[in-house]
Specification:
Blueprint lengths: L5 H7 L6 E4 L3 E5 L9 E5 L11 H22 L3 E5 L15 E6 L20 H15 L2
Antiparallel strand pairs: 1-2, 2-3, 3-5, 4-5
The protein binds adenosine monophosphate and zinc ion (ZN).
């Protein structure tokens, strides 16, 4: 619990929310400014600002909830698909510094875009660049 965190305040019951799902570790509620009907946020109940701050068990619990919830949310609003995503850090658009996965119902011809539309200009990377990037990420993840 972090006193000045709006999502911790929701978990504590100090700020109202339209809760749609709850486990010991995870809470899901409707987004207050939805991008589509049924737009749902899935959060760990304990405060973690960024994905990197999530303990392994909690990360698993959040994704388990997302996997469980996504088809149910779609069914509830008769959606054709869903976009699921996390803005991880300010530069990616994260406004509330408590990890939350967005489950956004999508509809045929809803005028939206795929997740490929969220980044800026595409980088111009040749095959050597991609090899070097793969190596450096593999090195970073082999610790
Ligand atoms: P992000 O930009 O990924 O940090 O998204 C934050 C999301 O939280 C936005 O979609 C807001 O509409 C939503 N939000 C902020 N405050 C509340 C709240 N009190 N209850 C429900 N959703 C909220
Ligand atoms: Zn918090």
């Amino acid at each position: 619990m972090t006193d000045d965190c709006i999502f911790c305040s929701i978990v504590a019951g100090d700020v109202p929310a339209r809760t749609v799902y709850e486990t010991d570790a995870v809470l899901a509620f409707l987004d207050a400014n939805p991008l589509a009907p049924g737009h749902t946020l899935v959060i760990p109940k304990s405060h973690a600002a960024r994905i990197e701050d999530l303990e392994t068990d909690l990360a698993a619990a959040v994704f388990e909830a997302v996997a469980d919830l996504t088809p149910r949310v779609q069914d509830a609003v008769d959606a054709d698909a869903a976009t699921v995503g996390i803005n991880d850090g300010e530069a990616a658009g994260q406004e509330v510094p408590h990890v939350h996965a967005h489950v956004i119902p999508r509809f045929d011809d809803d005028g939206g875009a795929p997740i490929h539309a969220v980044a800026g200009d595409r980088p111009d990377l040749d095959s050597d660049d991609l090899d070097a990037l793969a190596d450096s990420i593999a090195d970073a993840t082999s610790a």
